[in-house]
Automatic annotation (TrEMBL):
Protein name: AP complex subunit sigma
This protein's record includes keyword Transport: yes
InterPro entries referenced in this protein's UniProt entry, alphabetically: AP_complex_ssu (IPR016635), AP_mu_sigma_su (IPR022775), Longin-like_dom_sf (IPR011012)
GO cellular component, one term: endomembrane system
SUPFAM superfamilies the UniProt entry points to: SNARE-like
Length: 143
């Protein structure tokens, strides 16, 4: 089960956080700070998942973004690693090569995509087109 998703730029700024369970704000800030510090300090030859508190952190580095997921210890880390790639591909389909600015200026749409793909921390949809159906419908209504 996913506990939360983070998107961080390579300068260490948090661009998106999506929590699937409640955490106190002070606890969130401390966790995010520790996780960002660890992701930025690691090099390309190190493992991309590690245990932190009572969950496992899995991250994937792209050109200038880090996708970070915290999962329960019974999850398959490699499956989560691939799931994060699927999320990025879905964002690429919608934004036509997603960038940090797309995430900043369209954070509501990114949250909708995450909510379509995950429900209360469980994977609900892996198809890019099906995950984007409701958002595309919403885009046609708004115009």
């Amino acid at each position: 089960m996913l506990k939360f998703l983070l998107i961080i730029n390579k300068a260490g700024r948090l661009r998106l956080s999506h929590y699937f369970e409640h955490h106190q704000q002070e606890d969130r800030s401390a966790m995010e700070r520790d996780i960002v510090r660890h992701c930025l300090a690691s090099d390309d030859k190190q493992c991309t998942f590690w245990e932190y508190r009572d969950f496992v952190v899995v991250y994937r580095k792209y050109v200038n973004l880090y996708l970070v997921a915290a999962v329960t210890s019974d999850e398959n880390e490699l499956a989560i690693y691939e799931l994060m790639h699927n999320l990025l591909e879905t964002l690429n389909v919608y934004f036509d090569k997603v960038s940090e600015l797309d995430i900043i200026y369209n954070i509501d749409r990114v949250h909708v995509i995450i909510q379509e793909m995950f429900n209360t921390g469980y994977v609900m949809e892996t198809s890019k087109n099906k995950a984007l159906t409701s958002l595309r419908l919403l885009d046609t209504v708004k115009r």
